[in-house]
Specification:
By secondary structure, this protein is of the alpha/beta class. It is built from six helices and nine strands, in the order E-H-E-H-E-E-H-E-H-E-E-E-E-H-H. Helix 1 crosses helix 6. The two termini are 16 Å apart.
Length: 256
């Protein structure tokens, strides 16, 4: 299968695709420092910059899976006061409609979208309704779930909503889901965090997140800021890997 990513960041979806034996065809990221990271790790993937200035028609019917974690700034709970939390009406989160343009130009078979879980609530739920309406208009059904990093055994919550859109001609059987492998039970894992031993069970939750220790000795502050920004916006690749795995299984079932 072939994969293209939008709002690629430091390449979380691209890495997950690579680990899933899915070929990365292109990525699209407008921040130059992150494009350098993408070029380093995915040298054979075609690089695009500003999504608003990119013509995606060259990829029409060439991409099996299109991923995109469209900007969350206008949907984040950090901007719940004043006019900050505008959702799809905001300049950044509103770039979802550019993703829709890319989808209509590429016509991928599957779409994976990711955003903060609060996108389900912005503008009284009208934003998420608009997302589903746009996908339906283009001929896609959709399934979504709020996934945490802890669902795959990571030592933090990082709650995000993942959505998988698929062609309306694909009929899932009762009980079938694209998230079969995300919240499976994992064995306990021990972590040493800030000097404290923490045992974590995948799929579990905590009353509070464990402490994080950050050190920048000898590292330029600009590099630290860029790294934290990249990691802060990045997806958890293990979640995407498990979604990719399920997509490949369901796709194979419908080919037969």
């Amino acid at each position: 299968m072939k994969h293209g990513s939008l709002f690629s960041g430091i390449g979380g979806f691209d890495y997950a695709a690579e680990q899933s034996d899915i070929e990365n065809i292109f990525h699209c990221e407008w921040i130059e420092s992150k494009r350098k990271i993408l070029k380093h790790h995915f040298p054979n993937s075609i690089s695009h910059g500003d999504i608003t200035e990119t013509d995606f028609t060259i990829y029409r019917n060439r991409i099996d899976i299109l991923s995109g974690g469209f900007p969350c700034q206008d949907a984040s709970i950090a901007k719940q006061w004043g006019e900050g939390q505008q959702g799809l009406q905001g300049q950044r989160t509103g770039l979802f409609y550019e993703m829709c343009r890319a989808i209509s130009e590429i016509r991928p078979k599957y779409i994976i979208s990711e955003n903060v879980s609060n996108i389900l609530k912005t503008n009284k739920g009208e934003d998420f309704s608009a997302i589903l309406t746009e996908l339906s208009r283009m001929g896609y059904n959709a399934e979504w779930r709020v996934c945490r990093a802890s669902d795959v055994g990571a030592p933090h919550h990082r709650s995000r909503v993942y959505l998988v859109a698929y062609p309306s001609f694909i009929r899932l059987q009762q009980g079938q889901t694209f998230f079969s492998y995300v919240q499976e039970t994992s064995s306990p894992r021990s972590w040493d965090i800030a000097g404290a031993s923490v045992q974590i069970m995948g799929g579990g939750t905590w009353k509070s997140e464990p402490p994080v220790l950050c050190v920048d000795d000898g590292v330029p502050s600009k590099l630290v800021r860029e790294s934290l920004h990249g990691y802060g916006n990045a997806i958890v690749p293990e979640i995407a890997i498990r979604i990719f795995k399920r997509i490949k299984e369901i796709d194979n079932e419908h080919k037969h």
